[in-house]
Amino acid sequence: VKKYEIVRTILGERWNTAPHYTIKSAFAPTNIALCKYWGKRDEELNLPLTSSLSISLGSKGTTTELKISGKSDDEIYLNGGLMQNDSPFCQNLLEFLNLFRYEQTPRFIIHTNSNVPIAAGLASSASGFASIVLALDGLYDWQLSQDELSILARLGSGSACRSMWQGFVHWHAGIRSDGMDSHGESLRARWPEFCIGLLIFSESEKAIPSRVAMQRTITTSALYQAWPSKVSRDLAAIKQAIGNKDFQLLGKAAESNATTMHATMLSAWPPIIYSVPETLVAMQRIWELRNEGLQIYFTQDAGPNLKLLFLQRDIDNVLANFPSIEIIQPFAID
Amino acid sequence: VKKYEIVRTILGERWNTAPHYTIKSAFAPTNIALCKYWGKRDEELNLPLTSSLSISLGSKGTTTELKISGKSDDEIYLNGGLMQNDSPFCQNLLEFLNLFRYEQTPRFIIHTNSNVPIAAGLASSASGFASIVLALDGLYDWQLSQDELSILARLGSGSACRSMWQGFVHWHAGIRSDGMDSHGESLRARWPEFCIGLLIFSESEKAIPSRVAMQRTITTSALYQAWPSKVSRDLAAIKQAIGNKDFQLLGKAAESNATTMHATMLSAWPPIIYSVPETLVAMQRIWELRNEGLQIYFTQDAGPNLKLLFLQRDIDNVLANFPSIEIIQPFAID
Lengths: 334, 334
Known about the structure:
Number of helices of chain A: 9
Strand content of chain A: 15-25%
Shape of chain A: globular
Structural class of chain A: alpha+beta
Helix content of chain A: 25-40%
Oligomer: homodimer
Mean pLDDT of chain A: 94
Order of helices and strands of chain A: HEEEEEEHEHHEEEHHHHEEHE
Distance between the termini of chain A: 39 Å
Number of strands of chain A: 13
Largest sheet of chain A: 7 strands, mixed
């Protein structure tokens, strides 16, 4: 219900006006955190304990189309397939949409198309909620600022607030209890040589949702207390690395941040391990390659898959070792 | 050289006397830490930052025979095979032996026989150094106390100080800079139903020696700062569990202590992972079995192997799930 108040505050007199168009579609990229969001100071408003920093994945993301419907109920299509409205996916989506609708009117036909695996640690919910907010802004012609849109997306899923921009995005934790200062900020830096390789071991749903893992870690891990200051140092290093195009500094800080986040989970009770055997094998291979001089690093989210970080000049070498990866060049689309 | 002073202090006027016998053999059990030793406050004297608690493995361990030799050099046989004196194994052993010999006389023929895999995280060095100290004490007829023997064994390898007793052993960290208060103490408690299952995935040498991993973790892990207070809590829980024969409390504290130690390594730079793919699969299976009601826990040292913890009543069930394990009943030999 706090969420509802935030929406009304941001929309102001635009609250409960009729849509300006009958159909609107919007795309938002998914994003990968180089410095992780791990721990909330407010569960309902998705306010983080620490700031974080991500890179958006260009054309990888979610397009959501909202169309005014004459029917008595919403219809939701995920990648072309009609979903049951009582499925967890639809319930999350509708609960979010209802923040913006008076008595759930108007009804929508919603098409959400994602080109990233759902719930496999690739932040599909981030691009999903961000694209919904953008589609709503278009449909109602609210003309909200990107910061406002970022805050609204955050109400759906924390990391969605970073999907409002391409490139490197710094999510400021903020200090206000209403979260009006907790939103993304584009670093504007471009780094055309920057590459991400998606190394997918499993596209299946996570055994433990990240929000559950986060909560269990905070309440049971003896090591979590040291996490916030680790984030401060890594965030500063990554920002410096981006400013100087110092890839080694970026890679080290990002990988260390990821392994340390997983370390807090390993020390939770019961322990949480998202890695599968293939994850371990790939990590050891990455460390071997780095010992041989290749500048390759990884990051890992709440799932088994790895995201390789490297520079364009090493694409051939990386592909020779990881032939199955999908390579994203986040700055290639500009 | 500090080590040398400790030896002279403990031996007193027995220092540099001739051996009383020409041959002596002694056995010491290996031990598995339920609350880990992870971090040193003195590298040379193997003084730990925290106390720890172990269970000795009965007849699993090392027998060392020392025989006075007329030859010009020591001869070392490991499990029957003559070793090169310039191998790391012999150099460690001879460096330790030389603490007790004046100008390396007398020379010894040394037979060391271990029934635990060498350097596979099964603390073969602990039983090795403990058995050497016991054999020396016998050969020279020093008649040292067990606490003194424990201190001497610690100079060879920290965890060796716990191998001076069977059963549960509490290694007190101590506060003295000379380490004269840093030795094992037998808890005397017996728990005949207590079982350990050795689940061996690899008997090969560790890629990273534990002393290197320990040092790297302390100097680079952002999470290590929280480790000492974690140990205090786990140690208290395990002692309470032993006193009350509360197996669930013991299992939880021991497993959580182990995963948290590995978490500090995962957050080191470069990160350290001792688990192999089979380790991960076994952990997930253990957690599944526990969810199904079986009281089974694990601990893991600086290697890929797991040590399962369970009670005698569940042997059949554990064996059905892990047919390859070797089961140790530490209190069966009394």
